Amino acid sequence: MMSIPLLCCCLISLAAYLSLAYEDPRGQSCGETTYYAPNSTFSSNLDLALETLSNTTASTGFATTTAGDSSQTVTALALCRATITPSDCQLCVDAAASGVRSACPNQTVAQVWYTLCMLRYSGYYFVNKTDYTIAFTLYDTRHAPDPDAYDVKVKMLMRNLSSTAGASEKRYAVGRTAAPENLTLYGYVDCTRDIDGDSCSGCLLAATSAINSCCLGQWAGWIATPTCNIQFNMDPVHEDWVNGPYVNTDTTPALASSPTTEPVMGPAGNGAGGGGLAIKISVILTVGTVVLVAVVLGVAMKWRKRERVEKGGSGISDEDNDQEIMRERIGTRNFIYDLDALVAATDNFCLANRLGAGGFGTVYKGIMENGEEIAVKKLTPGSTQGREEFSNEVRLLLKLQHRNLVRLFGCCVEGENRVLVYEYLQNKSLNYFLFDKSKSALLDWPKRYNIIMGVARGLLYLHEDSQLRIIHRDIKASNILLDEGMNPKIADFGLARLFKDEQTHHRTRRIAGTFGYMAPEYAIRGFMTAKIDVFSFGVLILEIISGRKNYDPQLNEQNRELLKLAWRLEQEGRIMELVDATIGSFSQDNVLKCVRVGLLCCQQLTQDRPTMSSAMLMLSNDSVTIPVAGRHGYQDTPCDPVAPHDSINTSADLENESFSKNSITFSLPNGR
Ligand SMILES: *[C@@H]1O[C@H](CO)[C@@H](O)[C@H](O)[C@H]1NC(C)=O
Ligand SMILES: *[C@@H]1O[C@H](CO)[C@@H](O)[C@H](O)[C@H]1NC(C)=O
Ligand SMILES: *[C@@H]1O[C@H](CO)[C@@H](O)[C@H](O)[C@H]1NC(C)=O
Ligand SMILES: *[C@@H]1O[C@H](CO)[C@@H](O)[C@H](O)[C@H]1NC(C)=O
Ligand SMILES: *[C@@H]1O[C@H](CO)[C@@H](O)[C@H](O)[C@H]1NC(C)=O
Ligand SMILES: *[C@@H]1O[C@H](CO)[C@@H](O)[C@H](O)[C@H]1NC(C)=O
Fold first, then answer.
1. What are the CA-CA distances from residue 238 to residues 176, 235, 523 (Å)?
2. Distance of CA 90 from the midpoint of ligand 2 (Å)
3. What topology does CATH give the domain 318-423?
4. Would you say the CB of residue 243 lies under 6 angstroms from ligand 2?
5. Is 474 designated active site?
6. Which of 261, 363, 441, 575 is the most exposed place for a label (fewest CB within 10 A)?
7. How far is the CA of 106 from the centre of ligand 3 (A)?
8. Which neighbouring-strand residues pair with 363?
9. The domain 13-122 belongs to what CATH superfamily?
10. Distance, CA of 517 to CA of 648 (rounded, Å)
11. Which parts pass through the membrane (predicted)?
């Protein structure tokens, strides 16, 4: 069924994939309630436990250990995929032992999942205790053909494998079956080997019942509880899948005839049994995992609600929105790119294919052998800054999917080379059209409005709806790419930073970003909140409406600075004079609304600026009253060291536009 070249390709990319699998967990669950201190007994017991796992797991693929006596004991467990070699297992467990430390830096309960192994530790003793709580899910965004028939196949295969695993000594099962359209569906399930067979089957069936809420109809899925995990995929990304036994799901007996399924499962689609069990069983990771699941569900529901509200408001929403949220790609075949393939695709990164350059790398257009167009961002070699941003970007972006964010396809890490592969967008970036009088007429008012709304959605997702809350820090016209329908996608998350819920204010030593778009508190004092993106968004709105840059040295003193000009026009009741002459016909109310929101976003005081969700609300809802903006960002700023006119936008050259990145450092008298 599978051709030799395709198979080779799979195996090669599998090998490449494995090398990256050790860089980061595919999933993690960190307890949120108790922490240990840096040099505590717990910490040294944890070190000992992790070292013991590294020493003992590889030979059999499974180990548990307990370190320390009495109060600060640490119990830990590691499990490798059953079919891999001891040396692969060793590599993975070593990576997990250090990875869990960085993923969950001081939690007393933690678990990480890697492609080939998982590792768990806790201050509680959990060996021999089955935990049915869903702790982590991951899935491929691609849809399987004929989803109804496919879902039946997936569940049948998972049920068969669940019973098979329970009966096997190593508590795992692997298999494949026929899927619609002559495709093959592969499955793998396993449990930690400390639990008995019936508990293992029950745990796997509980995970199977979670398919309904996680990954129905998706090309691939991975669901884990602390003690077991199920995986299905239509790509054979693991070697064992290629030779896995064929499971004839068509003749699998009805569910009721299998005694092990009784406590957990109702008929397909009924998840209630699994929920009951989860409560019944004593759980260790419960708090962390429940929080995680609740956050995931909460975000998904919030999004659905918001999308419903928006519908009709702008008319831009589509059915796929819900689905784009919270998805992670596990179609590993495309995830890691071969350097040779990228060299070929870009003609050895030749100048003719250059699309642009940013602060730490150059972007090229590439065409893969199969004709697919990609954008390849090659980072400046040897630049530690670039590397840092790189790992940041890969880690974050792979987890983020939204139609107003540029899609990351994968990356390449070979030797000194750090390369990112993105979707290629036909129409370049917003500044290419907006600031060129011969092209700006292509952007009529409906298109500009669509761009404003799209950027707002993308930012809202970053700030409030994504699993990782992210401050972009460099929102500007050249970072807004346009697809063939002129829909905006936010690019360059290299500056994005995680920020935790409880920390609303961050101070950062290294100031990144682009002057002119920079909120004053950030430019001057390095004070970072999501409101700095709101500020930049406001500047962007004014640029989109006026068709001019935030700073234009060719204009006279009075009009150079867009913000000052806009404020003056607003005060004099002449704000409509700001509107670009090439914008075509437009609704005055709509334009006015956008300008007002833009002005609100650029206010000097952080607390006066709206959040992205209230900005979104004002933009999409005509009945909301927009308050009058107060002082703008750079008004009367004392000792204005980074006023916009010191900035970069004095040159039309894209290349220079971000020269300011990382170039200034502020010392903070009372850093954290
Ligand atoms: C913790 O241990 C490290 C190295 O063992 C040491 O450098 C550091 O000062 C210790 N910190 C505290 C708070 O004891
Ligand atoms: C792990 O193995 C190394 C090398 O054999 C040994 O030095 C170390 O003591 C072992 N650690 C534990 C905790 O068993
Ligand atoms: C460790 O835990 C404390 C809470 O006790 C938390 O405030 C702190 O940020 C944590 N440190 C790290 C590095 O996560
Ligand atoms: C765990 O359960 C198995 C049987 O299921 C038993 O043989 C073993 O002694 C138990 N281990 C612990 C530490 O309770
Ligand atoms: C599946 O394979 C059969 C025989 O190999 C072929 O006749 C049929 O057209 C294929 N169906 C699809 C949807 O490719
Ligand atoms: C799983 O499928 C295989 C092959 O179709 C079959 O032999 C086996 O009995 C099934 N196992 C269970 C528990 O349903």
1. 12, 9, 48
2. 14
3. Phosphorylase Kinase; domain 1 (3.30.200)
4. no
5. yes
6. 441
7. 6
8. 356, 377
9. Gnk2 domain, C-X8-C-X2-C motif (3.30.430.20)
10. 11
11. 277-301
